From TrEMBL:
Protein name per UniProt: Peptide-binding protein
Single Gene Ontology BP annotation: peptide transport
Gene3D superfamilies assigned to the protein according to its UniProt record, in alphabetical order: Dipeptide-binding Protein, Domain 1 (3.90.76.10), Dipeptide-binding Protein, Domain 3 (3.10.105.10), Periplasmic binding protein-like II (3.40.190.10)
Keyword Transport: yes
Recorded GO CC terms: ATP-binding cassette (ABC) transporter complex; cell envelope; periplasmic space
Pfam families: SBP_bac_5
Keyword Transferase: no
InterPro entries listed in its UniProt record: Peptide/Ni-bd (IPR030678), SBP_5 (IPR039424), SBP_5_dom (IPR000914)
Keyword field: Signal, Transport
Predominant localisation class: other
Subcellular location: Cell envelope
Length: 530
């Protein structure tokens, strides 16, 4: 076993990774066997999810990992740093000093995987479609500030924003802004099934319950250089089955989800042909609350929970230190991060929690159900919620039960307001504090939450979006984090690290996950130690 710790540029002063790849970047699977990547993600077509890869509906890291490789966006995140760079666009930029008008010029001769030409009308159609469909729990929230899009000829696109937004270029890097074929996709409804038509580096071939094939798209014209011709995504029901497939050389790369126990086991393993890559990440996990009805409508109940939760115990016992305690929605590593929850509550203290409830006249024990999803965030989630239950109940202040629900039912129930307290994860759409504040507290937020704070919504978010120099937003976002710690509409728990394990003839593994945990499959190649 070889272990490699990589410092992601976004999280470490924009420094490039300090360790070289175990194989040469010239390695490629061109003309050979596909690179097989294991995952515990599954993509099923159902009534709740009729189109798992439709940009107007998909808003989770699993689907985006497929979409990032098959669709094009006007801009993309760079390998190092945070400033977006052109992808389908040849150039982009604001055309006014208020950051309200944004214009892009497309590359010449762009083509979809079905052979249809891609032009400005397809870009305008794609963004308008996301807003028009406005799928519940979908990514339309990212474009709530977009007033209209104009196609100016074949290659020019103009975006008119309702209010200044310096983060708009970052939003154009996300699969929510994926360009779809206006001749193929319906304008007012979602597609059905799992097929997709994009212009990215790969085309999605066959997909079934066991695997999916991504083949290099011969029509692709963009800024990426794929190091392989074909990727096979192989779906596993458990992380352990995926680990065994890696050990048996039946897959080349082990992706989502590697459990904390597997990190320790792989790190201590005897197989010298496997490399484990560790990176800091921006994945966060938190509890969300119904702040309008039931016991969690009372701020004191939420504050008492914040006073009792022991993040260090969760990270140590449920995640075997493969994560870090998190005391804010904005993760460590971003400029605007502030430990607001620790500053307000300090270490867990049952006596202080009791005084919070007593001052509010709340009888104890407070009865609650904590709901989590059993099959989306990894095997350790059940232990995490068992620990949360013990932490709250051993204080004598709460009478908590936990309930596990499969993701297919969990997600619509959570956004539909059916749970009092539920566990959710967030993978950043782009590496900026705005993306850890606005999606939670704007009017049409992705949680479906009715919680409102006018200072965050009407002052802090608009103010920070007028600031092109993003480091200058730290104080304003710090105030937002302090408000969240006081009112506790959500309760941050931990910040994850990222892991991939791969056979040692696979190159580019250290580049294959971006800071949002989305797979960049074009980085993977097949080579030799060098």
């Amino acid at each position: 076993m070889n272990r490699k710790t990589v410092v992601l540029p976004v999280l470490a002063g924009l420094l490039a990774p300090t360790l070289a790849a175990c194989g040469t970047q010239q390695g490629s699977s061109a003309g050979g066997d596909p690179i097989v990547v294991g995952t515990t993600d599954h993509f099923t077509v159902s009534k709740r999810a009729p189109a798992p890869f439709d940009p107007a509906a998909a808003y989770d890291v699993a689907a985006w990992s497929v979409m990032r490789n098959t669709f094009q966006t006007l801009l993309r995140s760079p390998r190092t740093g945070t400033t977006p760079v052109p992808e389908a666009a040849d150039r982009c930029g604001f055309t006014d000093t208020r950051n309200e008008q944004y214009r892009c010029t497309l590359r010449k001769d762009l083509t979809f995987s079905n052979g249809h030409a891609l032009d400005a009308k397809d870009v305008a159609f794609s963004l308008q479609r996301v807003k028009r469909i406005n799928h519940k729990g979908g990514p339309a929230v990212l474009f709530g500030n977009l007033d209209r899009v104009e196609a100016l000829g074949k290659r020019e696109i103009a975006f008119h924003l309702k209010k200044p937004d310096a983060t708009f270029p970052y939003k154009l890097t996300t699969p929510a802004a994926a360009v779809v074929d206006s001749e193929t996709y319906p304008a007012d409804s979602l597609t059905t099934g799992s097929q997709l038509v994009g212009s990215g580096p790969y085309a999605l071939g066959g997909i079934d319950a066991e695997s999916a094939t991504l083949t290099r798209n011969p029509h692709y014209k963009g800024g990426l250089t794929p190091h392989n011709d074909k990727i096979e995504l192989r779906f596993f029901d458990t992380s352990r089955a995926m680990e065994k497939a890696l050990e048996d050389d039946k897959i080349d790369v082990m992706g989502r989800t590697i459990s904390p126990g597997q990190v320790s086991r792989l790190d201590a393993g005897q197989d010298e042909g496997i490399e484990l890559v560790e990176q800091p990440g921006q994945e966060i996990r938190y509890l969300a609350f119904d702040t309008k009805k039931g016991p969690t409508a009372k701020k004191a109940v939420r504050q008492a929970m914040a006073q009792l939760v022991d993040r260090k115990e969760i990270v140590r016992d449920a995640y075997d230190r493969s994560a870090e305690p998190l005391y804010s929605l904005v993760p460590a590593g971003l400029t605007a991060h502030r430990n607001s929850f620790f500053n307000k509550y300090g270490e867990p203290d049952p006596k202080r929690a009791e005084s919070i409830l007593r001052a509010a006249g709340i009888d104890k024990p407070v009865k609650l159900t904590l709901t989590y999803t059993t099959d989306h965030y990894g095997d350790a989630t059940a232990e995490e919620f068992a620990l949360l239950k013990r932490q709250l109940n051993r204080s004598g202040l709460f009478d908590v039960r936990v309930k596990g629900v499969k993701w297919d039912a969990f997600r619509p129930a959570a956004t539909g307001g059916r749970y009092a307290v539920w566990g959710y994860g967030w993978y950043a759409d782009f590496p900026d504090a705005d993306n850890f504040i606005a999606p939670f507290f704007e009017e049409d937020n992705f949680l479906g939450s009715t919680y409102t704070n006018r200072r965050i919504r009407d002052t802090i978010i608009p103010q920070t979006r007028r600031q092109t120099e993003r480091s200058a937003t730290a104080d304003s976002f710090g105030r937002a984090q302090d408000i969240v710690a006081d009112e506790v509409p959500v309760l941050p728990l931990w910040q994850g690290k990222q892991y991939l394990a791969a056979r040692d003839d696979i190159t580019g593994v250290e580049w294959a996950l971006n800071s949002s945990s989305v797979l960049q499959l074009w980085e993977l190649g097949r080579g030799h130690d060098g």
